[in-house]
Amino acid sequence: MLCSAGCNVAQLICKERNITLCRFARNLFNSGIPPPKLLVDELEDVLEADNQDWLASGLELLTEDLQSIAAGSPSIGGVLRLLVIYYLFFTRPNPFLACLDFYFLRPLADNTANKWKSSDFALREKLGGGNFGAAFEGLRVERGDRTISPRAKLTPEQKKRHETDGAFSRGSQWLVWKFESDATLGNALDGQLGSFPACLEIIKSILRQVLLGLQKLHDLGIVHRDVKPDNLLITTDGEVKIIDFGAAVDMCTGVNFNPLYGMLDPRYSPPEELVMPKNFPRAPTPVIATLLSPFAWIYGRPDLFDSYSVGVLLMQMAVPQLRTSANIKAFNNEMRQCGGNLSQWRDYRGSRIDFTLLDRNGKAGWDLATKLLKPRDKFNRGRLSVSQALAHRYFLPEF
Ligand SMILES: Nc1ncnc2c1ncn2[C@@H]1O[C@H](COP(=O)(O)OP(=O)(O)O)[C@@H](O)[C@H]1O
Ligand SMILES: [Mg+2]
Fold it and tell me: For the Protein kinase domain, which residue ranges apply (predicted)?
């Protein structure tokens, strides 16, 4: 993402300079001096001066606009100018970057990216099969290398699965990802990596990384919709990688967005079940969706869907009795019976549950969980966003 953002900026600078260059060349042509005689240094000086003039007068105008608003006598033009600037550059998701990404950078990347063939890979074990397709482990086969025989390394059980599930068939579409780790947070919670949480140092670090990853996604207008331990890989360096974007919705383009359709894991999904309110219209064409996305975001706060799943994740990691898959499912059902009120659930469960990890440091973890698991209010708000969760005192050093 950082790389694409860098490319965006570079493109913009080039464009701006080209426009100035054309205007400058035309001025020279009008004055009778042929452009080819120009020295590069002179050209640079004039270009910079031209840009500075433009920038300075723009800034002056905006300062005047702000001053007139502060003085209580705003002009319509000034307010409109400020609104346009706010809309284009400061809203989230950002329509300007979204347009660049969807209509320019994405086709560019599609055309320049490495084109793989099915013969470049040998499929191995099936790793999972969700609602959106199946995931397989694969080996890169070097072109022309006939010595490799991946099938020879498979167990009889894997060979059987490989024949039935793993064949590339004509017309099927495949996404190729780097293999990041063979352990998920689900494995860690099951105790397969040692006793939890000692095997992963601290819960806080995992939660923080998940929130940071989701913050980046939300800034781009993407809601993951399937945040859960099985979709969080843990690398040997203790890094957390969010995977499985099969259910993700891109609010900037409307991709995968159907307001009436929830693709849910009942253990981690919020009570409202949908990213946007039920009465929200279906996704329009991508360009309209892009232009309207900041308004849709402000109105529906789709990102709070993921916040709830993070709240369940915190409960599952911090409360030993909730670490098994069956118990976390029961927890979410019980929460619904308690009207989404975590304190009520605590009263109901009483002394059978160990809240030590949530209650330490002035109940910081408990407070965070309560605010992440709240039902939405009538304005589709009332629950912490991932950015607000990151600023919570739970992440401050303990003393
Ligand atoms: N990039 C990756 N690196 C390593 N393992 C992965 C990767 N992506 C997926 N997996 C493994 O494959 C499993 C299934 O993939 P996932 O994308 O979650 O699909 P689904 O849940 O829809 O079957 C994951 O639980 C994980 O074990
Ligand atoms: Mg998955």
Answer: 121-395
Type of residue numbered 338: C
pLDDT 10s digits, 351-378: 789 999 999 889 999 999 999 999 999 9
Residues 6+ apart with CB under 8 A from 207: 310, 313, 314, 317
Q: Is the CB of 293 under 6 A from ligand 1?
A: no
Which residue's CA is the closest to the ligand 1 atom numbered 8?
243
Q: Which residues 6+ apart lie within 8 Å of 93 measured at CB?
A: 219, 220, 221, 251, 252, 293, 294, 297
Cα of 230 vs centre of ligand 2, distance in Å, is 6
- Return the pLDDT at 39: 42
Cα 259 from Cα 223, distance rounded (Å): 13
184 lines ligand 1 (CB under 6 A): yes
Taking alpha carbons only, the member of 251, 293, 252, 253 closest to residue 274 is: 251
Note the pTM of the prediction, 2 decimals.
0.79
Strands 232-234 and 240-242: antiparallel
Distance 138 CA to ligand 2 centre (A): 17
Classify 391 as helix, strand or coil: coil
Hunting for tokens 């400020």 — which residue is that? Answer: 82
The answer, yes or no, to whether any atom of ligand 1 lies below 6 A from the CB of 284, is: no
Under a CB-based contact definition with an 8 Å cutoff, are residues 222 and 250 in contact?
yes
Cα 47 to chain centroid distance, Å, stands at: 39
| 231 Cβ below 6 A of ligand 1 | yes
pLDDT of residue 337: 93
CA of 149 to the centre of ligand 2 (A): 29
Radius of gyration of the chain (CA): 27
